[in-house]
Amino acid sequence: MTLYYRVNLFFQPPTMKDIPELSQIATQVRRDILRMVHAPASGHPGGSLGCTDFFTAMYFNILNHNPDHFTFEANGQDMFFLSNGHLSAVWYSVLARSGYFPVNELATFRYFGSRLQGHPTPDKHIPGVRIASGSLGMGISVSIGAAINKKLNNDSSLVFCLTGDGELQEGQIWEAAMFAAAKKVDNLVVVVDYNKKQIDGPTDEVLSLGDLHAKWQAFGWNVLEMNGNDMANVLQTMQQAKDSCNKLQPVVVLMKTEMGAGVDFMMGTHKWHGSAPNDEQLAKALSQLPETIGDY
Amino acid sequence: MLNYLNQMNKYISTGNKDTRSGFGEGLLEIGKTNPDVMALCADLIGSLKMDAFVKEFPDRFIQTGIAEANMIGIAAGLANGGKIPFTGTFANFATGRVYDQIRQLVAYSKKNVKICASHAGLTLGEDGATHQIMEDIGLMKMLPNMTVINTCDFNQTKAATIAIADFDGPVYLRFGRPKVPVFIPENEPFIIGKALKLIDGNHVSIFATGHLVWKALEASEILAQKGISAEIINIHTIKPLDRFAVLESIGKTGCAVSAEEHLRNGGLGDSIAQLLANERPTPMEMVAVDDKFGESGTPEQLMSKYGLDTTDIVHAALKVLQRKG
Predict the structure, then answer these.
(1) What pLDDT does B8 receive?
(2) Does the beta carbon of B73 lie under 8 angstroms from any beta carbon of chain A?
(3) Chain A nearest C-alpha distance from B217 (Å)
(4) How much is the ipTM here?
(5) B74 near B62, Cβ under 8 Å?
(6) CA A9, CA A138: separation in Å to the nearest integer?
């Protein structure tokens, strides 16, 4: 617990951090991810590293949320749903770093008895997680339900959902895409982690996604694009996504990322989608990511 | 013998109505008193008898189109925010088609979604086996956190629909298509998880659910004429099973018959058998469908061919009485 208090005193609750601060946090989050998957020798570091800048921007700048008082319904607050639950490592790290639960709990990731299950679930009562994900393709549907609920409650805050790109091969995604546009669910922003990789290889080889921009557009969505590993671009585009809400159209952001971003030998391959680094690889990876705001 | 017959008078048919209309009426009624109640449907409003709710509360109704997986997800998202969503479609599409969505988003995530399913079982009739799901009770009862209810007539379905809105947790509510006798009194309270004893008896316990409850009552008359006193218990809540009611009845009769419009695997009978095997090994016969798909036909033809008739219950009772010795 000592570490937790030290870190929390040093690290105040999230309030619109600027780019240098966000970058520092992101570096620390990447260290967290690598150490979290290394300890149990299992997990999915690749996608987590690729989306680290996005998660950091969301929880420390974009989202209007209150980590001190987590509720499922989140009345008056923005909500975030993770559809591709295997990105649990980055989500847990950012949730902890932004104050949802003690950062030293990150050391329990994937261990027996932990609230930080391999894939996120509200079953273990971890603040920040509202629904289970892991089986893919379901998060947008849930986000639509949450968004409609906000409209019914006259709550003007927004609902955000992250989905993978390989995940778009699931049919339910397109059920949800068709529904959200037809029913004008315009308080919803879906972000696609467009890293073009999945477990079995490049998406182009496994099952090509075709022209994603045209597909979402044809389904009736307002389509934005961004570089998910450029903090300035993430902040600017996500702000634009927020500003594009309430215009009778759901918003999707195609977020180009590099799987494994931040660790040279983990980039440019799908190899690190679902495997953890060994001791030597961890040391090498951490040497590229100096500790910034304190390890857990 | 007269005595047994007299007792049956409490449960006489007041005419035929479909259970799904009970759902429709119950939904409308609970919609009026509970503003959190919402309804979702995947292009089967008329079949589910949701028309009245849709007309009365258009803002609290969501038409998802033919997209059941999305419907379950939306319902889970609504429940997360405190709404009480009732999803409506045919039993086959309500369960098997979206098992994983229900598993992850509703059961495991403990979302207060009411999965309401019509046209369950063989009595769907002419549409054939693609639509005649007889595995749904098994699928749903295997899910941790899920409550499973199969109602037997119009009044019970209406009462159950109202009752589950006040119950916090995932529920699977199963009902059917055909018009069947209405015999449960309108004012009979529906208590989730509590079996309803319809007839007291001493020789054999008949545990019935859904459309087979009326047939069990008919069977009890035939058995009474043979001097056999059958205890008829309506198990409307298959999960959690009313263990006390089952064991108490078995303690008296010493043998059991289960009756349901479902496969033998995974149905009510297998829940009771599991309980009895653990607590009190007892001769038991199951009136259910044997590891087969259905086919086109009238409900009557199908119930007869697949062994779900009144006479099948009578035979099962006679057989189990012999085994009891």
Answers:
(1) 52
(2) yes
(3) 43
(4) 0.95
(5) yes
(6) 37
The model's pLDDT over A249-264, given as tens digits with 9 standing for 90+, comes to: 999 999 999 999 999 9
CA distance A215 to A218: 5
Q: How far is B192 from chain A (nearest CA, A)?
A: 24
Q: What are the respective helix, strand and coil percentages of chain A, to the nearest 5?
A: 45, 10, 45
Q: Which residue out of A79, A149, A157, A170 would a mutagenesis test of the B interface target, given it has the greatest number of B Cβ atoms within 10 Å?
A: A149
Tokens 């409850």 — which residue?
Answer: B213
- Residue ranges per structural domain of chain B: 2-14+189-324, 16-181
pLDDT band at A193 (very low <50, low <70, confident <90, very high): very high
Chain B residues whose beta carbon lies within 8 Å of the beta carbon of residue A158: none
- Evaluate whether B2-14+189-324 and B16-181 have a shared fold: yes
CA distance linking residue B88 with residue B161, whole number of Å: 12
Domain carrying residue A173? 2-287
Q: A106 with A92: CB under 8 angstroms?
A: yes
What are the tens digits of pLDDT across the range A54-83?
A: 999 999 999 999 999 999 999 999 999 999
Structure tokens at A202: 């490049």
Output the domain CATH number for residue A251.
Answer: 3.40.50.970
What's the number of domains chain A is made of?
1
pLDDT value of position A8: 41
* Mean pLDDT of the residues in chain B: 96
Does A295 fall in a domain? no
* Confidence band of B1 (pLDDT split at 50, 70, 90): very low
Q: Domain B2-14+189-324's class?
A: alpha beta
A152 near B CB under 8 A: yes
CB contact (8 A) between residue A178 and residue B64: no
Residue with tokens 């009026």: B32
Region B205-232: what's the mean pLDDT?
98
Which pLDDT value is given to residue A262?
Answer: 97
The β-bridge relationship of strands B179-181 and B16-18 is: antiparallel
Q: Tens digit of pLDDT for each residue in A72-121?
A: 999 999 999 999 999 999 999 999 999 999 999 999 999 999 999 999 99
In a domain, A14, yes or no: yes
- pLDDT, residue B10, reads 77
| Domain contains A23 | yes
| Domain B16-181: CATH superfamily, name plus number | Thiamin diphosphate (ThDP)-binding fold, Pyr/PP domains (3.40.50.970)
Q: Does residue A293 lie in a domain region?
A: no
What is the least distance, in Å, from the CA of A182 to any CA of chain B? 10
Residue A138 to residue B62, Cβ atoms within 8 A: no
Q: Is B100 on the interface with A (CB under 8 A)?
A: yes
Question: A120-147: per-residue pLDDT in tens?
Answer: 999 999 999 999 999 999 999 999 999 9
Percent of chain A with pLDDT over 90: 93
Tell me the pLDDT tens digit for each residue of A262-275.
999 999 898 999 99
